[in-house]
Each structure stands twice: as C-alpha cells, then as structure tokens.
Glycosyl transferase, group 1 family protein (Myxococcus xanthus), 546 residues
Amino acid sequence: MSIPRPPPRRTGLPAIHQVLPRLAWGDAVGNQVRYLQGLLRRWGHASEIYADAWDDACKDQVRPMRDSAREADRDAVLLVHHSFESRMVPRIAKSPGRKVLVYHNVTPARLFEGFERKVAAACDAARDELLALRPHVEAAFAYSRFSAEELVAAGYPNVAVLPFAIDWAAFDTAPDPALQAELDDGMSNILFVGRAVPSKKVDDVLRVFTAYQRLYQPRSRLVVAGYLHRDGAYGAYLHGLKDVLGAEQVRFLGRVSAAQLSACFATASAYLSMSRHEGFGVPLLEAMYRGVPVVAYGAAALPETMGGAGLATRSDEPREVAKLLAVLDRNAGLRAQVITAQRERIAELSQEAVAEQVRVAFEDICSSTAPRPPVATTTTATVELVCPGFTVRPEEPASRLARRVAERLPGARVLALRPWGEDASLTLEPISDDGVAVTHFTPDQPVDSNPRTALPGSSAMETAVRASSAPVVLLSADTVSAQTLLPHVSARAWGVCAPASQSALLASAQEHLGDRLVVEEPAQVETALQALLTTLASTGVLPRAT
C-alpha cells in the first residue's frame, strides 16, 4: 500500500497529529477525525492520522500507528481520540510530544450485556483505559458537557467542551433516484440512521413504530439505515421481534451510500431515536439540517445536542412516543414550528463559526511550548456514599438511610443523580443539603417519574467512584450503578441490600462483598443504620463509624 509522505510544515506552527485504534469510513468518529485533519492542514499545521486498522476506503488518509513515534517530534501535539478499547495506552505514554485527549464517550458495557459479550468486555476495558490515559495528557476535550462531566469525574486536568465541527456540505449529496422513488409512495416513513447495535435500542424503535402503525397511521413504513449483523445475536433478535410484533413495512437497509442516505432523509416523515447512550448524536443534527422533524428519547447527551429543538421525551414507553409521532403527522402547525426551531439550532452550528471555535481551542493548546500544568479536580471525601436517588427520590428508604449514614461519618459525601433538565457540571464541588455534602452527576437516561421504576446508572458517577481512593458504601447495592461498580471497587466497598431484592442482584452483591454486605430492609432505617455502622466499625477501616 502506498502511503503519502507527510506534507511539509509551512508556517512554523507545531504539528497536530491524531491517533485512534481504527479509522472507519462513514461513522461519526471517523468522519470527525478526517474533517479535523482538513481543518488543521488548512490552518497551517502538519497533521497526520495514525491508526492500527482502517477501512479500505480510508487507506489514503491514514498511516500505521507504528510510524507515529518516528515521525512525530517533541513539539508536536497528539490528539488521542477515545471511544472504545484501543490497547494503545502504553504506546501513547511513550510517544514524543504533548498529548491531548478527545473524548467521544464510551458506551456503558451493561447496554451490550445479553447480546454482545465481547463488545461489553471491550467497553469495560475502554473505561479502564480512560483512567489509565489520565496521567499522560495535559488537557482533555469532550464534544458535550455530558461527556466532559465524566472526564472531570475521572480527575482529568484542563477539561473543556470542544464544538463538534460538522462538514454540512457532506449532507448535500443528491438522493439516489431509485431508492427515492421506491420510498416516495405516499406512505409515512419513520427513519432511524445508525448501527443496529443494542445500545441504539433499535428494538424500541420497532416497538414505537408498531404502536404508531397500529394506533395512528396504518400507511407507514419504518426505514433503518445502518450496519446490521443479521446473523448476530442482536440482529436475530430484531428480526424475531419484528415477527412477534407483527409490524408491516419494516425495511432494514444495512449499510447505505451517501446518495441512498440522502434518499432516506428526503422521503422521511420523522426521525426517531430511542438510543440509550450518545456522547453527541450527529444523525439528529443531520435530520434537522435536512428538514426532518426529530423525536428522540432524551438519554445521555442527546437533549444537549438537540439544544431545545425537536421533541425530546423522558418516556421510553412505546405508546407515549408513538403519540408524539402522530401529533407531528397530524398537526401541520406544530410540525412547522418544530422544523423552524430545528433550523435555528442548525444556524447556531454554522460551519465557519464552529471551525473558528475549534481553531481557537487548539491555538490555546499550542500557545505555549511547555505542557500546561494539570488543574484536575480532586475530592477529599473520607467516604463515598453512593445513593443515586438521594435528590431525585428523597423519600425512598435508601435516601433516608444515606442521610443518616452521612450524619454519622465525618467527611463523607453522597454521590447522587442530577435532576432531569439540569446541566452537567464541570466541577466536583459538592453542595450542602441540610448539612450533607452531595455531588450530583447526570444520569445516562432520564429518571422516570414513576417511583417504582429502577433508577438509571450514571457513567460519570461510576467513573468518579472508580477514580476515588476513599472507602465506598453502596446504598442500595442492587441499583444499576452499584452493580456496575461492584467488580471494580469491591475490595474497598460495603453495601446495604433489601432481602426482597431480585435474587440475581442480591447474589451478585453477596459474591463481591461477602460479610461487608448488610442484608436489611431499608425501610427500617435505624436498624439498617446500626447494622451498617457495626459492620464498618468491625473492619477497623472507619474507626469513627460510631
């Protein structure tokens, strides 16, 4: 394979190179990396892309990672893109030059469990790498406050939000005439674009569409454009679910060309996303750019990306979301209002304005020849009390127990979910809630208003606990966050779990914590409190647990 030599540096500016494990054609990370390279070269920086693997369509735009150490110099800046397991940390640590992390977010492993065991393990390893990369970088960028919050939680220095620079002209490809004619037949087309993987919850897209077709619009079609491994566990599940639901006119197109994608958007009545985790969410903005109204489950960074445009929903109940699609279909005035708001959102992200913000961000990094000193946020908490519902469900037994424990343990802080609608924070500074120090973290999914519904996890909160060296108390040990944390912090953790918890969750907590797990009914707050304090004191680790 013939690889072009790096272009000469014409301006005296430092080189800014990019590294990532794989350069893929057509995915959001790959598109962003290639577009950034074009911007950096336009601004006068020498800029190469280094990777261990790449799609054949990218072969002329990438160089082998093994060449980076030889071709970079001590004045170069290395942008390390992180979104999946890379196994590149040792090489990055030894590479010359200054390192800056660009964080696209890592999908929680739990979203792949039951379907993709290897992918789940790789996601878990990627979060280990996120912590391992921290000592080697002088600054970190994220494409949303949601992602930046996790970097702060991990203890990264000099964290900032980098605007996502989009090449809007790439969306102006003329539609494929054959596919456009096929889809433009008078039916209402509901569109989803992206890889059909468990975290994208294409199964929920199917459920919402089925409800929409049966209750509101029989002449409707679902179009899913993106990679689908038909013989894989999730692909087989989707096809089986389609048959069980009985939905008609469901089209899984698989990978599509730029022209075919344009045809999908040109004929779409609405864009539907039920994804459970996005660090940004480019397809939603693409739909807005193309004039397609967006309905999206408000998970992770999606509400932030939408910026108040489109329709973001807290509910993932199929009939509730289907009702939003129906309102858009039947209320022409609302539809026009939504599209107008989406155009205003796109105007805020004009290509040249965003590119200038990116240039200024990199200019700040390059303005000094020496690495910037780390300014990482650290915590001095003596004990981490993990209670996701402390603020959003204060009357729950676990929340009342957490308050009583915090009152008895000097220096303890409560880690809790942030209420819906509040912006992600770029500081770990706790707030005082009637004398209890509480640090809030954005949940990965909206908190359901139904108190009987399980609370969601929070990648940022879980990362903060893993990055802390303090003892950990899990109230309760059967929550999503507790179950995620147990394999990583069990050696310094204690927990409380109700006897009536699901048997699998209780067994998992007992396996990891042993006699450091208090199995008591949380509603009996004083009984559970005394049992927990006795367990803490018996270890000698917390002598002040009296």
